[in-house]
Description:
- This protein has helices at residues 13-20, 45-49, 62-66, 77-92, 118-133, 145-157, 170-178, 190-198, 204-208, 212-230, 261-281, 320-334, 367-384, and strands at residues 5-10, 30-33, 40-43, 71-74, 98-102, 105-109, 137-142, 164-166, 248-258, 284-295, 306-317, 341-353.
- The chain is α+β, with helices and mostly antiparallel strands.
- The strands form three sheets. The protein has a five-stranded mixed β-sheet with strand order 5-6-1-7-8. A four-stranded antiparallel β-sheet has the order 9-12-10-11.
- The longest helix has 21 residues, at 261-281.
- The N and C termini lie far apart (63 Å).
- Residues 415-425 have low confidence and may be disordered.
- It holds the Pfam family DUF4113.
- Residues 5-189 form the UmuC domain.
- InterPro entries: DNA/RNA_pol_sf, DNA_pol_Y-fam_lit_finger_sf, DNA_pol_Y-fam_little_finger, DNA_polymerase-Y, DUF4113, Rev_trsase/Diguanyl_cyclase, UmuC.
- Keywords: DNA damage, DNA repair, SOS mutagenesis, SOS response.
Amino acid sequence: MTTLFALCDCNNFYASCERVFQPSLNGKPLVVLSNNDGCVIARSNEAKALGIQMGTPFFQIRDLVEIGDLHAFSSNYVLYGDMSHRVMQALGEFAPSIEVYSIDESFLDLTNLLGRDLNAYCWEIKRSVMQWTKIPISLGVAPTKALAKVANRLAKKSQKAKGVLVLTDPYHISEALKATKIEDVWGVGRQYTKLLRKHGVETAYDFTLRPDSWVKKHMAVVGLRLVKELRGESCLELDEIAPPKKGICTSRSFGERLTEYSQIEEATANYAAKCAKKLRKQRSCARVISVFIQTNHFSENDLQYSNSKTITLPVATNSDLELIHYASLCLKSIYRPGYRYKKTGVILTEIVPDHQIQYDLLDTVDRQKHASLMKSLDKLTSRYGRDIVKVATQGYDQSWQLKCERRSPCYTTRLSDLPIVCNER
DNA sequence: TCTGGGGTCCTAGGACCC
DNA sequence: TCTGGGGTCCTAGGACCC
């Protein structure tokens, strides 16, 4: 049975989102910065043409921004999340099933379109998504997911394709594989590139000529699956429903270096609350919590320290109160005075559905009460904005807060997400 | 002075059990 | 004294993704 997949990818997604609401920026170089305005994580084509690389530290391009040759935005994930949802909904109109692979990519199942004019169909998808959401996309179509990735990449690169490439003919497929360098293959990172190069594999095509036994030996089952996919044998299915997450993590670098325990505790408490909220969103609870702290390992002048602590809870929970409590216990055991801390994070694991919790006979927590408290809290925050109500440990100081001086407004979502000052106390 | 954050899957090796 | 083989679970670490 033959399969057919499309990989749809939003072009320069974050940059395109910023432009939707500021069309005057069309045709102008624009970048989006990471948290803390640290480095470049998205670029418009014009910014790429200026030679700005992914990951460039902001301070290296600040001059360009100041003289007006480049526009820079802090990242605005609320806006991007909402725009992503709109694009995925639009794409869903064109296929019986869709796998949302990341914030800006999805696979469509086009198997039932075999034999139709796929090129025309893809152009219709592209035009419609543009009309409905103002986000430009590229489409690659092929018999396997890995080949659809190859097609998508060439669709974007090629002047002739202009954003749509259908690869079904065996001759076209091998030409495409020859035109794809090994490091540009999905699933081949830095280490595998080095290894494959050493064995004379320069392109995706060379890779498909390697015997299965060799691939299995050097790249394990993941590599074997990949090489088969590139040869046209479908090994990766469409995963329509995202499974609940097995680990949930919230971590950030601070806006400035922190030395005081109380400040770091405040940040950690806020990250724990964020994790708790993510848990409740997917209706699960976590049994294990870890907290880590670290100094800035880039800095040669500072004393370096990093550590982490993990605690297994008596009963899995998704309550802010409990998770903040245990996060503080973890932090207390690893905090050492005398360092300039850069970053902390909270990681939750052993995640279970909230209706499958193993209770403890000696449990002293009133779980019903916690659950209804969290329900009210989620209601309040969704109506009045986040942090309208919080646990005292989360504090009001917030000297740890991110730097994001170039944030655009959340055009598409609740009024309460707009940066208005509300009465927290 | 400035350098992101959040995930997944797989494997190897040790502990432990029968 | 020697010394088997199969299974499971856990953990740390590596590799990759966007």
